[in-house]
Every structure is written in structure tokens, then in C-alpha cells.
Amino acid sequence: MTRPTEALRPPTMADVAREAGVSHQTVSRVLSGHPNVRATTREQVTAAIERLGYRRNSAARALVTRRSRTIGVIAVDPTLYGPASTLAGLQEAARDEGYLVSTVTLRSGGGHALEDALDHLAAWGVEGAVAITPQRSSVQALARLAPPFPVVTVEGSHGLDIPGVSLDQELGARLVTEHLLATGHETVWHVAGPEDWLESAARTEGWRAVLEEHGIRPPRVLRGDWSPLSGYHAGQELAGLALAGRGAVPVTAAFVANDQMALGVLRALREAGIRTPRQVAVAGFDDIPEAGFFPPPLTTVRQDFTAIGRRSIQLLLEHIEGTVAGVEHIVVEPQLIVRASTRSQDGA
Amino acid sequence: MTRPTEALRPPTMADVAREAGVSHQTVSRVLSGHPNVRATTREQVTAAIERLGYRRNSAARALVTRRSRTIGVIAVDPTLYGPASTLAGLQEAARDEGYLVSTVTLRSGGGHALEDALDHLAAWGVEGAVAITPQRSSVQALARLAPPFPVVTVEGSHGLDIPGVSLDQELGARLVTEHLLATGHETVWHVAGPEDWLESAARTEGWRAVLEEHGIRPPRVLRGDWSPLSGYHAGQELAGLALAGRGAVPVTAAFVANDQMALGVLRALREAGIRTPRQVAVAGFDDIPEAGFFPPPLTTVRQDFTAIGRRSIQLLLEHIEGTVAGVEHIVVEPQLIVRASTRSQDGA
DNA sequence: CCAGCGATTGTTAGCGCTAACAATCAGGGG
DNA sequence: CCCCTGATTGTTAGCGCTAACAATCGCTGG
């Protein structure tokens, strides 16, 4: 009744104070759990808050505390299973810590797009950001841009001095390659991901290292773009090599850099009349939910994306709080999942 | 030099004003593109902004304008291809409009989790939200909760009076079912998604309607949970029915409610020695990137997730601006993609 | 019985920005 | 030569909140 526009605007702290018969500061104290508030007062305030449906205005709060309690995430193509899962894990962890997560997605990883994204986040005063931009160029751009808040990368810290969380891609590749060699293959072919991706490079590296350790000269690397179609094309090439088979390196096993491409490879081989795994064993990477139902079920490397997301938030918060506890590169262990696609006792 | 802590805090509008020799209000005017500012003044201000690396504080702005220019998104399991793609389209559209997108992910769609998510968003003063929560229970909870800002749903407005964008799921199901009948099948079996999902219900409805229009009594509905594994189990059941084949309804065609489950069905059929599509034709829904490489390539219904995301932002903004242009339920058309899994001239 | 202490509550200044209003200036008509 | 007008710029109040400081209260010890 006191004001004509009362109903239009949400209640403020002053409204609650009036309702509870205390000062707005006491309300603030109750809200932030200050110890020196009498129990009865606290109850009155709580009741008033309840009655009015009051909610703290975070803009005002951010203004005075200079803390937005918002963190940004920059993600490239969150349509892929990996980034999407990481994002999910990360969101949850951030929310548990009372942070809001604002996401910006990039269509491509071009340096300029990244700059725009950082600007966008900076304009909203995020306290820090996680970049899920696993391309070499993006990470370099990130290092160059030096945003006004801490940034932690996911799968981006491999060679560079940026804090980040990543799976031990190389170890994953080693596990697969060792597994294939142990199964009796003379050598292992490799279908790599895009050259610009750090993960791709690390996987190729692991594969190459194992072969060299075994005194095997690595065959030529085939390359795709993570898509099933590109895998299909690589598979056609492999099939051609397998069927020609004159004098060249035998094609009996292939390590494909992700599961989606592996699906394409499997299809191409099948179309060429080549049986998996009897004639050519195939392994992937990621363990997408579909992998266990491929024809045949795919041997692959499982990544704990949720853990990666969680750890990256943890690391970022440490940077924000300034309690950077020693380690800056967190590495998560992969797990080899062996299925029919590399077991000779089963066919398609 | 004037202040000891100068370097610690980012420049404010007052700093820019001093640097440019004008009042802070003029700076504000330049920033918001007010017409009545002399060109030379504008240039000076712009130069000062550039020199100081000034950036408007959006918390202060939000406080005084009562507009956060932030929208929230609530998503259930953004690991699935559909939600993830929708999210991506939506992000981009929102960013183009100068909004920040804050996402909250829900593990399950339980009513309480949704309430928490809304609270979380409300606490940060979002101006509106998009809910990608395609479960009946979530949408009902949404309708019940009546949050203090407009909410638009994606795939959630089917039966209820909540504004939203959705694909014409029923039409998609009809297209598939008609296609299968046209290919010469006596009837079409159906593997549905979870009962609680609106999309699932709509797809089942479309399938049932077509059969009934053709005077066919719909066979018993099998049910999965969208996962490949659940599809596999349904497939085993179908295989059993197909092989038994005594007196019962013949099993020669199946419409599976999503592509992932279809993969499981295909695997189960293959394991049972049943050829696709020669003995049993299979169709899916979604057109995930892998679908064209399934054994055999899957006939399915393509959804334009990006368009759905974009339209939902459009609709939400209209609600925020208050310019609710008549239509509140936007429906996007699906597209039938015919591949080998329903063509009798090709096998696995 | 009063200074003095801790516990509790209130008062006062901004945080950085925009909106409303005020002031200033140049030029044209009477 | 002065008033009026519109263009341009400046001044003044908050937005809703927290931090720092001030005030008050009930007790305790001397």
C-alpha cells in the first residue's frame, strides 16, 4: 500500500528488513550465515524471507563484492560425445560449488572466434573459464590472448604452459597398440584424427612409439576428421591395401583414433568383403555408448569424461582462489576396453 | 599515480571520462550509441576506451537497468545427440542477440532437481529460460512451479499450454510407418522410448495412427530407454518372435524410436541370424551422424536440431520483450531419410 | 555500583552504472 | 541586441547489496 509499484518489482532486502522489524544489514548477516545473530532474530528474518519470497539480487552482490560467481566455458563442437560429456561433468561440479556456468560454443576454432568468445565472457565478468578447445591453434591463441581471468584447458595443455586437465592420450594409444601386437599382429595401421588436434597428435605419438619400441617401422598414417564418413574413406583405402597385399606391409590390424571413424572403417572393410576381426582387427578410442554394439563390438579406450570435467573445475577454482596447489597439469588415466573387434575367436 | 591500488582494479567509466576529458555520462552515451554526441567527442571517448582497455561492468549495468541479458537453459542429459545439438544451435542464436547463456544440467528429470535448477537460475537473475526437458514429469513440474521469468520448452509443449518449439514427432513417425507399409510389409512393429518422454509418446502415437488408418491392429509395443543396450534387448525379443513365427503377427519390419536403440536392434537381429532388411526391415529416428554407417545404413527421420534451438531462442526473446506474436507453439518439420535398412535390394 | 567487555544490531558509505533533470552553447527571428 | 530553440554536455540520484564503523545491551569484576 505504501508504494504504487510494489507488486511490479521483486522484494529487496529492505523489504525483508521492514517485514522482520530489523535492519537490512541483519538480513544480510542472516543470509551469509554470520554467527553473531540471535537465534530468534534469525528465525524472524527467515520467516520474513519465506513470506515475501525474497531472493538476493546477485547483480548488486556482484557489484559490491567484485565477484560474479560465474565461470565461463568455451567449447568447440559440443555435439561430439567427448566434449558434451565433459561439459556435463563440469557443469555439475561448478554448480555444486555455487557457481553459474555460462557456455559459449565455437563453430570452428579459428583464433578470431576464440577472441570473441573470451570478450563475450569478459564482458559478463566471469571469474575464470574452462576452454574445451582441443585444437593446437586455439590453445596457442589462448596463450597469446592472455585474458583478464584465469583459464584452464581441457585436452589443451599437452605441450604448452597453460594449466589444464587431460587424459593420458598417449598411454591410451599405447595400450591399444600393445594389445594389438600382443594379439599376434605383425604391425598396426593407424587412422589419425585432424592434424590440428592435440589429442590426435598424442594418440598418433603413442602408437608410433610402441611400434618403434618393438622394432617395427610404422606404416603410413591415414587421416580423417573424426566423422564416420572420413573413417569410411580411410577404411576403403585400408581395404584396398589389404586386398592388394603384394610385398607391402600386411594390413591385419588398425588403430582408429576415435570410435566414430572406426564405425566408418568397419563398414568399408565389410563392404570390401573383409571380415573383422578375422582378417583385420580394428580398435577405436573414446568408448561412446554405441561402441559395444558395432559390428563387431569395438575394442576401444574409455575416457572418464565426467572426471575430466570435474577436475577441470577443481583446478580452475584453485586458480581463482589463488591457492594453486603445485600441480598444474592434471592427467587422467584411460582404460582399455577389449571387445570382439580385436578378438580372433569372434566374427561379425 | 593518483591511487595506490590503480593497477588492481579494472578501469571504470569515470576513469575513461577523466582520460577523455568528459563526464562519465558522455562515456555512457557513446557506449550505448546515443545520437546526440558530437563526432569529435565520440572519437575522443572511443580512443580513451581503447587506451585504457575499458569494458563496461555488466553487474552495475544489470543492477540499474534490471536486465541481466542472460538467459538460462535447463537440459536433461546433454550427452545425447539431440539435446546437445539443440543446445549448440540455441547458444549461437542467443549470442548473436547479445545474450549470455547459462546452462544447468539435470542428471534426472525429477521434479525436485528441476526446481533447484530454476532456483539456481533465478538467483542469478536470468531474464528467461529454455527447458530441454522432454519428460512429461518435468514439463508438468515446470507448469506447476511458475518461475518468475518466461520459460520456453523444447519438445515439451505437446499437450500442455506452455510455449515451446518442437519437431512434429508424430509426422516423423507417420512418414516412417507409411514408408515401411509402402515397401510391402504386412505390419510394423515398434520399439518405443521411455514412457515418460513426450517425444516417445508422440512417435508411438504416429505409428499407431498409421496402422489403424490402414486397418491394421498394432502389435504389442516393445519399450527401451533410448540406449543401445535396451535396443539390443528389444531386438532379441523381436528376433525370438520372428523366428517362432507360428500363427502370430509376422515380424518383417520395425520402427525403432531412436537411432541408438536401432543399432542395438540391428545387432540382436544379426546375432540371431536374421538379415536386415531382407528378413526384417528396421528404421530409426534422429539421424545421428553414425546412422549412415550402421550395418546396414539406417533409414531414419532427420530432425533439424539447430533450427529447433534457434527458434526456441527467438520465441523466448519474444516472450521477454513482451511481443508475443500470436503463435506460441512452433513446429518444425521432420524429414524422412531412406537408406539400406529398409530397402530390400540391399543386405548387410 | 560503575567501567569494560563481548555479543548483537544499526548506520553510513560506496560498488559502477543509467535515467532524469539541469546547464550550457550556438544560431535565428523579432 | 535579446529571447527562444535544439543540440550537446554535465549533475544528481539512486539500483540492492556488503563492509566498515558506530551504537546499544546485558553482564562481569573490582
In short:
The first copy, chain A, is α/β, with parallel strands linked by helices. The first copy, chain A, has helices at 13-20, 24-31, 39-52, 58-65, 81-96, 111-123, 136-145, 169-182, 198-213, 228-244, 259-271, 305-321, and strands at 70-76, 100-106, 128-132, 151-154, 164-167, 189-192, 222-223, 253-256, 281-283, 300-302, 329-332, 335-337.
Whole-number radius of gyration of chain A?
27 Å
Question: How are the strands of the largest sheet of chain A arranged?
Answer: 2-1-3-4-5-11
Q: What letter string, H or E per element, gives the SSE order of chain A?
A: HHHHEHEHEHEEHEHEHEHEEHEE
- Classify the beta-strand content of chain A into a percent band: 5-15%
Domain HTH lacI-type (chains A, B): 11-65
Protein name (chains A, B): LacI family DNA-binding transcriptional regulator
Pfam family, one (chains A, B): Peripla_BP_3
Organism (chains A, B): Streptomyces pakalii
